[in-house]
Amino acid sequence: MERAETYPPEFFNAVTTLLQHEGRVLPAGWDSMQFMRDVEQLAHERGELPTIILLEDAMAQLEMEDPSLAEILRLRYWEGETLQEVGQKAHRSPASVHRDLKTGQEKLTQILWTREQEARKAFRDKQLQRLETLHYDRLFGIENSLSLLKEVLLDPEGPHILMVTGMGGIGKTSMADYLSRNLIDERAFANFGWVSLRPTISLWDDRPFFQPLSETQVLEQIFERLGRQLLGEGAISAPFSLQKLLERLEYHLKQSPHFIVVDNLEILSDLAPLMSELKRLAGPSRFLVTSRVSHFVDPNVYHFKAPPMTLESAKALLRHEGRKRNIRVLQEADDAVLEDIYHRIGGNPLALRLVAGQLHTHALKTVLDDLAQARGRSVARLFEYIYRRGWENLDETAQRVLLAMPLLPPEGGVAEQIVAITGLNDEQVHDALEVLVQLNLVDHHPGLSESRYAIHSLTRTFLQQQAARWG
């Protein structure tokens, strides 16, 4: 049997305060206690204070474990008797009563502390079950991004909807998952939800990655899953009514702050209907959505573009993969080799892990050459996963502009250079770049006098080798 964790001194002092006021005063800091949150609904139904319910339940347990100590506490705090009066009833000295009074308070404190720890564990377990199965063992180089997102989310005056965007494989889902787990551990929100539209098949499966769904079907799917998580199975009416469910969700989410992730929204051709419903549900609850497609048209959405890994983070990832998978070439590689991998592939974690996995059966030079020439099934599937849907959503003008991007320097170029390369006019290039930036196929680096446009190293390889094969 596990030994109960010992309570801190300030918790004992808080329970003493609770006893002195018979549960009618909320001790400092107890508004953040998990058992307080858990009993709020019951307290509301009974018309009682949560602290009174908690104290009475703890006293009931103490009475079962040690009736004499519970009786001393009741006489002293509920009946208001002095130590002498309690001693006279029990035929004991005031000093003996004082010792038992302290022992009773210690046991009562331990009961309440144990309940709080159990409540926290139950809360954590329940919330974690809503997340997807952990698909990473360690993340590299995301500390600054997570710190910024967390600061925005916990700002009482901050935006209610955050959108994390970026190319496929850049780590949007992992970032959202890690952030969710961190916030769950801190119990930063009253409740958590997670809905993912990500395909559940393997990256290397031959089936299509995106099954077409109507906008209505996607909305129903998102909110039905969310309703089951937050409201229970009974919340889903038969026949199903999206509007009735949204009304119930709106009421529920307005009662206490929730944190909800809606992952992989790129299957939606139009984000406006979903964003409209999320704005209706948000506040005080917060939503974080991930997508390969940005939604700049909505001023109420906070946009965060997931950055590629830095060179140092990529090297750390490759060395980690080498140790984890026992790939000697990565374990023994010097910095120059790892830097060459990074400069050829860029900071896409999915692509870097693909290279690491291929080293079990192929030489590093072969793997990098295959990637550079878009050879082999694994490489083809990687490009399919990251780029196919975005490429097919481009019109001919946007494809033409994107195909011109590898002709710019690695650090990118300005719109005038793209006009000169493509032969298109300023307006056509401007409109095409707007679409490409929104789809996260082109990176936009704004400046005071002009903007610079660049592409990821992996995108460069895709455009030079694979895009022409798709037509």
Secondary-structure map with pairings?
Blueprint lengths: L8 H12 L13 H13 L3 H16 L1 H12 L4 H8 L3 H37 L12 H12 L6 E5 L6 H15 L4 E6 L18 H17 L10 H14 L2 E6 L8 H10 L4 E6 L9 E5 L5 H15 L2 H5 L2 H11 L3 H10 L5 H10 L3 H16 L3 H9 L10 H8 L3 H13 L4 E3 L6 E3 L2 H14 L1
Parallel strand pairs: 1-4, 1-5, 2-3, 3-4
Antiparallel strand pairs: 6-7
Describe this structure in words.
- The chain is an alpha/beta fold and 471 residues long.
- The chain has 4 domains: 9-129, no CATH class; 138-305, Rossmann fold, CATH 3.40.50.300; 311-373; 391-470, Arc Repressor Mutant, subunit A, CATH 1.10.10.
- It is built from 21 helices and 7 strands.
- The protein has helices at 9-20, 34-46, 50-65, 67-78, 83-90, 94-130, 143-154, 172-186, 215-231, 242-255, 272-281, 311-325, 328-332, 335-345, 349-358, 364-373, 377-392, 396-404, 415-422, 426-438, 457-470, and strands spanning 161-165, 191-196, 258-263, 286-291, 301-305, 443-445, 452-454.
- It has a 5-stranded parallel β-sheet, sandwiched between helices.
- A hairpin with a 6-residue loop joins strand 6 (443-445) and strand 7.
- Helix 12 (311-325) crosses helix 14 (335-345) and helix 18 crosses helix 20.
- The protein is elongated.
- The model is unreliable at 200-210 (pLDDT under 50).
Q: Over all CA atoms, what is the radius of gyration?
A: 29 Å
Judging by the overall fold, what is the CATH architecture of the largest domain? 3-Layer(aba) Sandwich
Order of helices and strands: HHHHHHHEHEHHEHEEHHHHHHHHHEEH
Placed side by side, the strands forming the largest sheet appear as 2-3-4-1-5
Could you give the count of β-strands? 7
Quote the beta fraction. 5-15%
Corresponding CATH superfamily of the largest domain: P-loop containing nucleotide triphosphate hydrolases
